[in-house]
User: Fold this.
Amino acid sequence: MANVKTEDEIILFEREMKEFWTKLKSVYGTEQISQTLALRDSCKESIKVLSEKWSKKLKEGDQMIDKIQEYSNEILQQSQRISENQEHLTEIKSNERLMVLISLFVFALDEQLQFVFRHIDHKDPDKPYAFTLSINEQGDYEVTSCTPPLDCIAEFQLKVRETNNFSAFVANIRKAFTALSYK
Assistant:
């Protein structure tokens, strides 16, 4: 009996739903339904356009990430080259110090000391820049030759006689050669 009552209620509910739908159609009419469908289609089209636009933006973002990674790799390679060049420069400076020591030894034997600098002119790194040094009768340092000639040699000689700072003297001559190479 309860089963029959439930079936009657379902039939009644379905009938009421049909009546409601019929009333709804008459109240809103087919025009509103058409507008709603058109609005739905417009929303779908807008979503499609936005999806394409965001998909394009996502691809551009991926390309930017790839470029950043590429630049990062390039920076890493350049950093490695800089590190290698610094090691090479340290080696060159070490070799120059060794040459100074050897030259000092020769100076002690021959009473003349010749300094030959390389890696001064960036266009011609093997080009030699040299000066010869001796000690005159008064016991002062004296440059006996300089190739290429420097106008500031006399000034440097006076300074080394005042300060007795030999390493600054040699460094200043090297700087003067470097400045000359840029003229």
